[in-house]
Amino acid sequence: MFAPVILSLKVASLATIIAFFLGTFFAYLLTKKNIPGKSIWETVLILPLILPPSIVGYLLLKVFGRRGLVGAFLLDTFGVQVVFTWIACVIAATVVALPLMYQNAKGAFQSVDRTYELAAKTLGSSPFKVFLTVTFPLSWPGVISGIILTFARAMGEFGATLMLAGNIPGKTQTIPTSIYYAVVTGKDEQANTLVLVMVIFSFALVFGLNAWLKKKNDRGLAV
């Protein structure tokens, strides 16, 4: 019963790491730089949050499937099949959770006072050094929020995962797909246990995040 829990934690952790780097990179790029077609890029990044997960999964299947552009290349060149593997779970979770990381990082970067960044540049710091020493540290609370919400969303991903990875016990069966399978097959006790695990885990994540942000804000007001 706990195999789906272990797989979900593994998938969510990897998806969060990937989404963190991609979301932070694109948020900084589209917030701080003049990029052609910025609105189009931003729309593409946010789209998985709006589209039904089944549609996102179908599109991913067209890309990573055996006949897909990327899937066919990987299969023919390296003999690697993406669909119906735990890697497919990671891809689906990353794509669906990425918008949350991007939106939180974007909001965090926009909240940074430009005066500090300009002062660092005036003192001779390179753009990369300004990001590491000024922009990112000042944006940290927003970025942390993005990481927590991204992880929670990746843990709960269902539709796109079912389309791309399927529901193979011990291989691609995550908590959400396991709950679905348990309900369909009448295994109410297993479904109840997994639902309880997800609810408690998600509650703890969000509650902990809110408590940390409140404590940080209170500390800031005290100063």
What does the model show?
The protein is mostly helical and 223 residues long. It has a single domain (3-222), classed as MetI-like fold. The chain is built from 10 helices and no strands. Helix 6 (114-122) runs antiparallel to helix 7 (127-155) and helix 9 packs antiparallel against helix 10. The model has no long low-confidence stretch (mean pLDDT 92).
Based on Cα principal axes, name the global outline: globular
Mean pLDDT: 92
| CATH third-level topology | MetI-like fold
Output the helix-strand order: HHHHHHHHHH
Q: What oligomeric state best describes the polypeptide chains here?
A: single chain
Rg measurement, Å: 20 Å
User: Which residue ranges are poorly predicted, with pLDDT under 50 across at least 5 consecutive positions?
Assistant: none
* Overall tally of structural domains: 1
Q: State the end-to-end distance.
A: 49 Å
Q: Give the CATH level 1 class.
A: Mainly Alpha
Helix/strand structural class: mainly alpha
Strand content: under 5%
Percent of residues in helices comes to over 70%
The CATH homology group name: MetI-like
The count of strands amounts to: 0
Number of helical stretches of at least 4 residues: 10
